Every structure is written in C-alpha cells, then in structure tokens.
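tokens incoming
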C-alpha cells in the first residue's frame, strides 16, 4: 500500500506539471479609456475650460476691488466648476482618480479663499487665492486624457 501511494503521488505530480505547462497565460492589459469615456470626459473638460477662460473677468473684479460681484462670480459662472470636476474624476482611470480628487479639493479651497478674501475685502489674500485657483484648474486639466 505504501508503494502504491508513492507511485500515485508521482503520477499526480506529472499530471499537474503537464496541465500547468499546457495552459496558456492570459496577458493582463492595463486599463484604457474607451472612445465613449473619452467623449464623455471631453464634454465635461470643455465645460471646465470654458469656465477657466472666464477667469480674467474674475481677476478684473478682484483688481477693481468689487467684492460683491467677486462673490457673485464665484457662485454664478464658476458655481458648476466643482460638479463638472467631480464628473471628470469619476470617469478617469482608477490610478488617476486620487490625484484628480486631490487637485479638485485644492480648487474648492481656492474658491473658499477667494470668497473669504472678498468677504474681508482683503485684496492680497483674494488675488493670492485667484492665482492658486488658476494654477490648480490648469493642473486638473493636465490630468485629463486627450482624445
């Protein structure tokens, strides 16, 4: 009986080696963007770019120290900015999402800084937050895939 177990173990080992050697390895492809996702991201990105193109208007309001309209501008024309950025974040590849969320959070903090500066009528703090907002929006757009 002991001899039978030894032979059976060797035969099972040979069968296992044969089956493993005959199997084909599946190639793991990194995740990529589909054309539908690229189109969707492009739609949201174009909205963000349109908002970014309106930033000189905000700079003029800050420069004129028109605090009421500065606050209105970040709530009006820039009010949808965070929502559009969130929609882009959700459609990015899983590896790109954390960095996009981090930059998106910085944009929110910049908008809060502009609002707080306008509330306090502090030109330096407001313009500093404006410069950071412009830089962070460009950084976010740099993370998005191009069609």
């Amino acid at each position: 009986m002991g001899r039978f177990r030894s032979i059976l173990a060797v035969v099972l080992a040979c069968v296992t080696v044969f089956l493993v050697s005959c199997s084909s390895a599946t190639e793991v492809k990194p995740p990529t963007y589909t054309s539908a996702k690229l189109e969707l991201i492009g739609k949201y990105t174009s909205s963000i770019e349109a908002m970014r193109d309106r930033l000189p208007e905000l700079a003029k309001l800050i420069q004129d120290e028109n605090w009421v309209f500065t606050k209105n501008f970040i709530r009006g024309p820039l009010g949808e900015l965070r929502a559009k950025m969130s929609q882009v974040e959700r459609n990015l590849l899983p590896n790109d999402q954390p960095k996009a969320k981090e930059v998106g959070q910085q944009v929110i903090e910049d908008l809060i800084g502009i609002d707080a500066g306008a509330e306090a009528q502090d030109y330096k703090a407001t313009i500093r937050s404006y410069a950071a907002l412009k830089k962070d929006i460009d950084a976010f757009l740099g993370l998005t895939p191009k069609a």
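note: The chain has a mean pLDDT of 88.
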